[in-house]
Amino acid sequence: MREIQNLLDELTSAGDEIGVQVAACIDGELVVDLWSGVADVRTSRPVDGDTVFASASALKGVAAAVVAVLVDRGVLDYDAPVGKYWPEFARNGKENTTVGQVMSHSAGLPWVPDGIGVDDLFDVPALTRWLAEQPPAWEPGTASGYHGWTYGFLVGEIVRRASGRTIDEVLRDEVCAPLGVALSFGTARTERDAVIYDGGWAAWIRSLPAEFPLLRAVPVDLLAEMAERSMDSAQASIASIGSMTARGGALLYAALGNGGELNGVRLMSARTVAAATAVRTTDLDRVLLSPIAKSYGFFLGQPGGYEVGSRNTCFGMNGSGGSLAFADPDLRFSFAFTHNRLTAGSDDHAGQLVELVRAALGVPDFSDDRAGQPAKCP
User: Fold this and answer.
1) How many CB atoms lie within 10 A of CB 73?
2) DSSP 377
């Protein structure tokens, strides 16, 4: 693992990263668990394996796992109308919208209110009430478009109505405690968490063309302000974003990639995992303007790019700013990367680290002729 640690140290020493973690599992065994740099520049507090990093939309996959747990226990049903659990939602063309359509970003509710600010965004009750009143932008189930922020409000309210608990409580009790991992929705929870810094992410966001549909789903000024304020306002529990350790992300995906079980802990049945991760749409995403294969809450295919292709058994989510977590069940491999310098484009290092970890462990990549053959821990 020396080459992986060397790269992490080089990135933090050069200032290309501030603090980083990378973790990977093969056959359910944690075989990479490395870190480098500092969690807080002001105090020089070092990163360790337990440092929690704000990881943005990478936590959408964690929310999908929470929903799958509740589906496995009969608390939720992917095919049921949302109105079964949340009666106020069943209006203005959403009467037949299903839980599965929300999970696959096919509910037609990707937009946030015009003029919304950072503080408004974290008023969960107000945004949830607003969404319940909205007509869908398209007939639910007929198209898909990334629900960048609204996913968290919709999924969180469905979970709360069906289970009587917040989605953070279900995550804590039914996923984190059994697996012994650190994952949560929202950010900036404790003084041990990594402080987030803008590493060019805000400038990249502001460079996007004004007509890009994503900017109606996650407004440019709002995102840039969050980056520049180090997400200090992101205290609310919203399942659109969240925090994790790389170790926690890799272990959760190891369980999912192993049919819902890890080291004697069963989160859900293999049948439920199969339902949660099956391809539900490969259409052009109306918000991201590219075809993306999606399941019930996960993006499918090449991690980070998620282009539609033959390897749609690989599932996960990346987070704006550079975080990533996914499972490749064909190869019994899972991976997670967290950091606290928000980057974009060529400055992102997650893909580079995925390939380095794959090579170090002898795990084939997507273009390798060996892809689909079992990997073995060296």
Assistant:
1) 12
2) -
Residue 333 to residue 350: CA distance in whole angstroms: 16
Contact predicate 94/101, CB 8 Å:
no
23 beta partners:
33, 336
Tokens linked to 325: 């977590």
DSSP tag of 202: H
Residue indicated by tokens 């309210």: 157
The two tokens of residue 353 are: 């680290």
Q: Which is nearest to 244 in space by CA: 1, 48, 56?
A: 56
3 state SS of 126: helix
Cα–Cα distance measured from residue 186 to residue 239, given in angstroms and rounded to the nearest whole number: 7
Q: What is the mean pLDDT of residues 307-323?
A: 80
**215-250 pLDDT tens trace:** 888 876 666 666 555 544 445 678 988 999 999 999
**Which tokens sit at 212?**
């890009």
Structure tokens at 222: 């709002």
Global pTM reads 0.93
Which residue among 57, 184, 237, 334 is the active-site one? Answer: 57
Residue with the two structure tokens 């919304």 = 116
Burial of 334 (0-12, 13-18, 19+ CB in 10 A): buried
Q: Which two tokens stand for residue 167?
A: 């989605």
Residue 242 three-state SS: strand
Residues forming a β-bridge with 25: 30, 334
Q: What is the pLDDT of residue 203?
A: 82
Distance CA 306, CA 288 (A): 12
Bridge partners of residue 198, in order along the sequence:
342
The pLDDT score that the predictor gives to residue 188 is 53
Contact between 242 and 62 (Cβ < 8 Å): yes
Do 136 and 82 form a contact (C-beta atoms < 8 A)? no
55 included as an active-site residue: no
Single-letter amino acid, residue 28: G
pLDDT at 181 over 70: yes
Identity at 88, one-letter amino acid code: E
Query: In 10 A of CB 328, how many CB atoms?
Result: 26
Longest dimension (CA), the chain: 58
Write out the two tokens for 153.
Answer: 């409000």
Each residue's pLDDT tens digit, 20-73 = 999 999 999 999 999 999 999 999 999 999 999 989 899 999 999 999 999 999
